[in-house]
Amino acid sequence: MTSVVAPESPDGPTSEARLVERNSWKRLCERGLHWSRVHVAGFAVILGGLYWVVDAIIHVLFQADAAFLEQLFPFDASQLWMRSLAVLLIIALGVSAQHAIDAQQRLKKEAEAARESAELAHRTKSQFLANTSHELRSPLNAIIGFAEIMRDELFGPIGVPQYKDYCEDIYASGTHLLELINDILDLSKVEAGKLELREEAVDIGSVVESCVRLVRVRAQEGQVTLETEIEPDLPPVYVDERKMKQVVLNLLSNAVKFTPEGGNVETSARVTAGGQLELVVTDTGIGIAPEDMETAISAFGQVESTLSRKYEGTGLGLPLVKALVALHGGEFELTSEVAVGTRAIVTLPSSRVRRDAAARHRQTA
Fold first, then answer.
1. Buried b (16+ CB within 10 A) or exposed e, 309-340
2. How many CB atoms lie within 10 A of CB 306?
3. What does 220-284 look like in DSSP terms, one character per residue?
4. Is the C-alpha dihedral spanning 181, 126, 324, 241 positive or negative?
5. How far apart (Å, rounded) are the C-alpha atoms in residues 217 and 125?
6. Which of 159, 284, 346, 352 would bridge 263 by S-S if both were Cys, CB 3.0 to 4.6 A apart?
7. Quick check: helix, strand or coil at residue 353?
């Protein structure tokens, strides 16, 4: 290791004296950094007293080694107050830097602790929901099965017609609860990254038509018109068919539920100019206010308050749609206007559109 020593001034102190002086400045700076941890009011008092102490020290040092001080502070030798101010400025800069470093490290530690706590809570919640859902489904399936047997009188007549109506209510309620549990389980699996896709080439037109049939009875009861517009020769899409049916059915169910009598719900599917699949569900329902949009797509989010709710539901439909679409590498967009309607757009990447399969199908036909 090579060390470089500055040449001595003819009328300056010896090397040992300069070493002592440099160590003094070093200790002074270290003390300045240490003072950064003192309360601001106390530090102001210390800094005020330090001004006079440093002024006296510099005066002594100036008398001892003018050349050294000229190198350290290139000011006029008669202006000692400027030297004092320079020293205080150095200390203040060191204090500010130390404060900034301490604050940054403290904020970083707090952010890491908050992130780890949030991730742990999220994993715990997802695991709890998954375990609870599994425990509920087994007895619920038995209730639904026995209610269906009694409703259909498979082993003979019940005798009292009112009992048959009760069985129908038990079956309908159990089926609704099972659907809710399945949604909770799927959403918890997606959040935990454990939901696997069983992908295959799927005819989206058939998926849309089957989902429309499932909601047609409810739409007729609410006097809501259902319309579909499927692009001719729509190519197959490589997706999980069950999950995609779940996406379309949730969007249609929401659209029918929140559309008043005489309203209209339209479902369309097409391939964009960029080769992406675009699935759109548009309704003329009550709409969603801009400030409520984030709540609508959050898990268990309800736009209406608990006391004024008019529509049933748990708030899992749209969050599950968003999660399943993202799992396919797609995008989900929701636009709405109060008293005008809502437009839900599902876009799947072009890599999932099988144009070659559609071309072979047309050639065979």
1. eeeeeebbbbbbbbbbbebbebebebebeeee
2. 6
3. HHTT-EEEEEEPTTPPPEEEEHHHHHHHHHHHHHHHHHTS-TT-EEEEEEEE-TTS-EEEEEEE-
4. negative
5. 36
6. 284
7. strand
The region that residue 275 occupies, defined by phi over 0 for left and psi between -120 and 50 for alpha, beta otherwise, is left
Residue type (1 letter), 251: L
Question: What is the 3-state composition of the chain as percent helix, strand, coil, each rounded to the nearest 5?
Answer: 60, 10, 25
- The residues with which 357 forms a beta bridge, in sequence order, are none
Amino acid identity, residue 27? R
pLDDT digits (tens, 9 = 90+) for 198-213: 999 999 999 999 999 9
User: Which sign does the torsion angle of CA 22, 28, 31, 32 carry?
Assistant: negative
Q: How far is it, in rounded angstroms, from Cα 68 to Cα 6?
A: 11
DSSP 281-337: EEE-SS---GGGHHHHTSTT--SS-STT--S---S-HHHHHHHHHHHTT-EEEEEEE
Which positions of the chain have pLDDT values less than 70?
Answer: 1-95, 126, 130, 299-314, 356-365
Residue 332: partners with Cβ closer than 8 Å, 6 or more residues away: 321, 322, 325, 326, 344, 345, 346, 347
Q: What tens digit of pLDDT does each residue of 258-314 get?
A: 999 999 999 999 999 999 999 999 999 999 998 888 888 876 666 654 333 455 566
Q: Which residues pair with 280 in a beta bridge?
A: 268, 345
Site of tokens 């709409």: 287
DSSP strand pairing (331-337 vs 264-271): unpaired
Can you tell me whether residue 345 is helix, strand or coil?
A: strand
Among candidate residues 223, 254, 274, 224, the one with its CA nearest the CA of residue 334: 254
Whole-angstrom distance, CA of residue 330 vs CA of residue 231: 19
> pLDDT at position 356, please?
66
Number of continuous H segments (helices) and E segments (strands) in the chain: 10, 7
Task: Answer for the pair 208, 248: CB distance below 8 angstroms, yes or no.
Answer: yes
